[in-house]
Structures are given as structure tokens and as C-alpha cells.
Specification:
The chain is of the alpha/beta class. Among the domains are: 85 residues, Immunoglobulin-like (Sandwich); 74 residues, no CATH class. 19% of the residues lie in helices and 18% in strands. The strands form 6 sheets. It has a 9-stranded mixed beta sheet with strand order 1-2-3-5-7-9-11-12-13, with no helix packed on it. A 5-stranded mixed beta sheet has the order 17-24-23-19-20. The radius of gyration is 43 Å and the shape is flat.
């Protein structure tokens, strides 16, 4: 061994230099041995050359690193190691516990090995990015230490096997991205089993190799889970159950069906030509004649007679109606609802409890369709709403008529003392031609005051309903009050505080 080291170093040792050569050989052997220690290739963190350190963020992206730098600060919260050449993440990638590390980014590294103890020193992780690597399988309990993990990115790998216990212990996980892999089995245990992830709101298994889905189990999931369940761009086999599943989701306006509507495709089964790819939402046409789904919205009032239409695209179809709560409409059970001979549903009289979703199933020998009607019942009768509106207009017409009568009385009533010789005009030569309306009497003649008193007009406020004794003489239009209109309380008028001389004010008007 000693001779081999001497030859390797190219050093010849004489008898007098044996001790020195021995020491040099031992040091060289130790150095070679250290190169084979796993993890020893990682150099110490250098925030000036290999990484960028900004407070509690350490970014070592695109530095051609083959191992995670050692001596990471214990206060590190974000560690970015993306776009490097780290192919293996061993248990000893960090010797110190990083109790404050929350975000770990390892994407685009060619990573193909994860140790089962890789995250023991980083248990506080909330965001883990392992996307765009070369991972092939996920072993059991591999993520178990990450009890606080919320987002896990595993897309764009080569994952073909996922152990059923791989995500055990990750109870805080909310979003899991598994798209663009080689997964052939839908991981139903993540969303349906008793041990499912309770907080998971997004599961993306799109662009994999899944051919069949557990449709019945997926249909039974809560809407908040189905809203974030993505499985488009998979080689699914066409079937009416698949169309029914996505059609229901689309009607419910779930993001998983609406956002990628055109990306849900499937292969037609035999006897169709091999590998005939069609859109799932096209299966209601001539491809498989699956039951179609439509939805309309209707509004009604209390005590109204309402007829709901089941407008199918084919004639002579047998129609069955379901009321809210999946109650079948049949004779003798639903006294207010009955199916007419043409297949329409008549509800008379409409009650408040009739609000909800109605379903019409139309079936024939060659076709079948399903239509949905969402009914909203207002909590008042149609006549009550009309009466309120008519009362408002009646009040307005009455006020205008009163104004016309007052003007006729003021200007068209003949003066009985107009031709009296002793009733000459004094002072300002007041007359109805020179002063149409005088707010305050300005005459000093007692006889004239007595005559004027005969033409003083007072408008009783009780005859002006809803006007508070005031009318805007400028003819401003009313401002409709939507809330008052719904409740049958008439209309709201603009403030007339700026009006100087209102003909309906409490101040006496003299002519």
C-alpha cells in the first residue's frame, strides 16, 4: 500500500527519508479517503461567491452545485437551490437543525434519490419544491416528518409509483401537484379514505397515464374538494359516467371542470377506430349519445301559477320530474306540483318552500336528456308588488291634480271688487299681473288687507301624503328607491330644502 502511494505521487524515498515519506503518504491516504465520505463534496457556504444571502434568505440558484452547501445559518427561512446539479438528497445534507426553514426549492436539479430521513432536520417546512427532477417513486413515510407542510410540488418528474403511505403524517398539506408524471393509478386514498388529507383543497394529477377513474367515489366527494381536483390530459376511456361526472361539475361551476373544459378528452371504446380521441363534453352528441345536461333559471312569486318547461332536443320523450330534495313528482303526493301531458311541470300555488333545483329526466328508446331548473321564489305576491307601484303613481297623480286646482283657484277666479270705484290701487300698484305670488303681505291699507285675507290659501299637510307639505317646483324627477320598491313602500323624493318659495309650504300665499 505504501509503495503504491509512493508510485502514485511520483516520489522516490531513500532509507534516510523513510520517516518523511511515511508521514506524507498517510496524509495523502486520508485525503483520498475523505473524498469518498458521502456529503463531503459540499463546500462551506460562501455568501460572497457561491450564494446570495439577504437577511434570512439564502439563494444558491444556478451555481453548478453538486451538493448542498454546509454551515447554513440556523436562521435561514428560505433556501433556494434550484437549477443546480444536486442529484441525491441524503439524510446528512444538513448537519444542523434548521428549525426556521420554511421554503426549500430544489427544482431543476436532476434529483433522482430522496433519503427517507432527508427532512428530519427541516421539520418546519411549509413549501417544498421538488419539481422538474428525475424522481421515479415515492416511498412510504418519506414525507412523514413534514407535519407543517402546506404546498408540495412534484410535477414534471418520472414518478410512476406512489406508495399508499407516502403522504402519511402530512396532515397540513393543502396543495399537491403531481402533473406531468407517469402515474397510472388515481390516488383516491388522498381524498376519499378515512385517512385522507383533511386540509387538501387541490390535487393535480393531470397529464399522466390514468385510464380509469373511480367515478362513483369522486361524485360523492364534497364540492370543495371537487373544485380543486384536476385530471385533464389523461388517456381516459370514454363513458357516459365520465361525461355525467364532468357535466355535473361544469353546471356547478367548479373550477376543475370550467378552467380546462377543452382539455378533458378520452378515447372511444370499440367498435370505434382505435385511438379515436374526442372531447368528453362532446359525448352527448352522436359519439355515445350520453344524457345531456342543461340548466335554466326561473323566478316566481307567492301564490302564482308557474309552469316549468322540459325543452328537449328530441320529440316524444318520457319525462320525469324531481323536486328539491330529490322528491319524485307523482299524483297524490305533491299537491301543488303536477306533470302536464306535454311533460311540463306546473306548480300552483307557488310557495316559499318551492325554491330550489328541479330536474327533468327525458328518456326515449334512442336518446336521453337531463335538464335542470333553478327556481327562486320571492317572498311576496305579484299583486302586492303591483299594488305598491300603483299606489305610488296614484299619489303622484293626486298631488299634480291638487296643484292644478290650486293654480286655477289663484289665477282664474274672478275678482268681485275689480270694478269698484273706491278700490283704487295704491303704492306699488299691486295686481295679479305684476306679482304672481307674494310670500309676505306688504300692504298697509286695512281694507286691502281684509280683501287679501279672502284669497289666502292654506294647504293641509295631511292631504299631501308622503310629501311632508313640500313639492319641488322645478319639476325634478323622483329618485327610485329599489329597496323601498321591493318592500312595497313607494318612492323616495329628492330633498326640496333648497326651494325658496314652495307653493305647498306652510307660509300663506297671497294674490
Amino acid at each position: 500500500m505504501l509503495q503504491t502511494l509512493h508510485q502514485t505521487a511520483g516520489v522516490g524515498c531513500g532509507m534516510s527519508e523513510t520517516l518523511a515519506c511515511l508521514r506524507w503518504s498517510v496524509l495523502l491516504g486520508l485525503s483520498v479517503a475523505l473524498l469518498w465520505i458521502p456529503g463531503a463534496a459540499g463546500s462551506a457556504l460562501n455568501c460572497h461567491k457561491t450564494c446570495i444571502c439577504a437577511s434570512n434568505i439564502v439563494s444558491c440558484s444556478k451555481m453548478n452545485l453538486t451538493a448542498v452547501p454546509t454551515e447554513l445559518p440556523p436562521y435561514t427561512v428560505v433556501l433556494d437551490l434550484s437549477y443546480n446539479e444536486i442529484t441525491r438528497l441524503r439524510a446528512e445534507w444538513t448537519h444542523d437543525k434548521l428549525d426556521k426553514l420554511q421554503n426549500l426549492l430544489l427544482s431543476h436539479n436532476g434529483l433522482h434519490f430522496l433519503s427517507s430521513e432527508a427532512f428530519l432536520n427541516a421539520k418546519q417546512l411549509r413549501y417544498l419544491d421538488l419539481s422538474s427532477n428525475k424522481l421515479r417513486l415515492l416511498d412510504e413515510y418519506i414525507f412523514e416528518p413534514l407535519a407543517h407542510l402546506e404546498v408540495l410540488l412534484l410535477y414534471n418528474n418520472h414518478i410512476s409509483q406512489i406508495d399508499r403511505l407516502a403522504f402519511t403524517g402530512v396532515n397540513s398539506l393543502q396543495k399537491l401537484y403531481l402533473s406531468q408524471n407517469l402515474v397510472s393509478r388515481f390516488p383516491l386514498e388522498l381524498v376519499a379514505d378515512k385517512s385522507r388529507l383533511e386540509k387538501l383543497i387541490l390535487l393535480d394529477v393531470s397529464s399522466n397515464r390514468i385510464k380509469a377513474l373511480p367515478v362513483a367515489e369522486l361524485q360523492a366527494l364534497p364540492a370543495w374538494i371537487k373544485n380543486g381536483l384536476y385530471f385533464h390530459n389523461n388517456p381516459l376511456v370514454c363513458g357516459c359516467d365520465l361525461y355525467s361526472l364532468l357535466a355535473h361539475w361544469y353546471i356547478r361551476k367548479l373550477n376543475s371542470a370550467r378552467d380546462f373544459r377543452d382539455d378533458y378528452q378520452c378515447y372511444l371504446p370499440a367498435p370505434a377506430p382505435a385511438k379515436t380521441l374526442v372531447g368528453v363534453f362532446e359525448l352527448s352528441s352522436d359519439y355515445m349519445n350520453c344524457s345531456t345536461f342543461k340548466q335554466t333559471d326561473e323566478e316566481a312569486f307567492l301564490e302564482q301559477t308557474l309552469t316549468l318547461s322540459c325543452d328537449t332536443k328530441h320529440k316524444d320523450m318520457s319525462k320525469t320530474w324531481l323536486m328539491p330534495g330529490n322528491v319524485v313528482v307523482s299524483a297524490g303526493i305533491n299537491q301543488t306540483a303536477r306533470v302536464l301531458p306535454d311533460g311540463r311541470l306546473q306548480i300552483s300555488p307557488v310557495r316559499s318552500e318551492d325554491s330550489g333545483n328541479y330536474t327533468c329526466f327525458a328518456v326515449s328508446e334512442a336518446h336521453n336528456e337531463t335538464l335542470y331548473v333553478v327556481l327562486k321564489v320571492h317572498n311576496f305576491t305579484m299583486n302586492a308588488g303591483g299594488d305598491s307601484l300603483n299606489t305610488a303613481y296614484t299619489t303622484l297623480v293626486g298631488c299634480l291634480a291638487s296643484a292644478v286646482l290650486v293654480l286655477i283657484y289663484l289665477y282664474l277666479t274672478p275678482c268681485r271688487c275689480f270694478c269698484c270705484p273706491d278700490r283704487g290701487k295704491k303704492g306699488g300698484d299691486d295686481s295679479i299681473h305684476s306679482s304672481m305670488i307674494s310670500v309676505t303681505p306688504t300692504h298697509d291699507d286695512p281694507a286691502l288687507k281684509a280683501e287679501l285675507d279672502r284669497h289666502v290659501a292654506f294647504i293641509d299637510s295631511k292631504d299631501l301624503r308622503g310629501q311632508n307639505g313640500k313639492l319641488n317646483p322645478n319639476g325634478d324627477e323622483e329618485e327610485p328607491d329599489e329597496e323601498a320598491g321591493m318592500l312595497g313602500k313607494g318612492r323616495r323624493r329628492r330633498s326640496v330644502a333648497e326651494s325658496i318659495s314652495s307653493v305647498f309650504s306652510d307660509t300663506p300665499m297671497v294674490v
